[in-house]
């Protein structure tokens, strides 16, 4: 099987500082890969290189075997890379359902005509309902987005990301800023998306219990370099990873 995503010697330097250095990985379709590493290891920068927010100073990004290194973020989204912050806006004064319906409409290419036709409108709304069910936010359909709790807002963002229907999902710390009580709900949402089985998911996450629960593969970034890439079992026994742990790699974990 061909990898859906591949990086070859991917590198970006800011001034004299190499934030991501020579990272070569292959991600197989419909797998779940978590990217771990301490603060400043280059995880978000690596995502920026995949989604096109940043251009590398060296190396390549390939999607389905095609070199996409010079393509814009919008082109990459159309080709199948979805990243949560690419959603331009959660409209705070619209309801949860309206926000997701607009994301569904945008994916269908209907931006300006709010009511294209009653049949289409009903189909968009039905899809929005289904997405809200996936992210366990159905009870909040009628709430205004601005009234959601932080964890619920993240769920809304995930529903809007799913509306893009990209095969690849880049999730950058979906539990960031959440209270401990909110974390299990997000874990359940991600588990559910994984169980649907039709996506390739890359997750940046510090919460190791969550990472071990979800991942088929782990990538460990350390000072911008790929320290290891393997199954969670092998990674957890890897001496280099262990010494990185002992060296305080996860001091910041919560
Ligand atoms: N636009 C930029 N200009 C200069 N330096 C940058 C830029 N973006 C990232 N860096 C630097 O690159 C390094 C990697 O940062 P990055 O945010 O990718 O780390 P991270 O692994 O995602 O960390 P965290 O876990 O804290 O989110 C850091 O030293 C950061 O300061």
TrEMBL record:
The keyword Nucleotide-binding applies. Keywords: ATP-binding, Nucleotide-binding, Transport. Residues 5-248 form the ABC transporter domain. It holds the Pfam family ABC_tran. Gene3D superfamilies: P-loop containing nucleotide triphosphate hydrolases. It comes from the Bacteria. InterPro entries: AAA+_ATPase, ABC_AA/LPS_Transport, ABC_transporter-like_ATP-bd, ABC_transporter-like_CS, BCA_ABC_TP_C, P-loop_NTPase. GO terms for molecular function: ATP binding. PANTHER family: ABC TRANSPORTER ATP-BINDING PROTEIN, CONSERVED COMPONENT OF ABC TRANSPORTER FOR NATURAL AMINO ACIDS-RELATED. This is ABC transporter ATP-binding protein. It comes from Brevibacillus ruminantium.
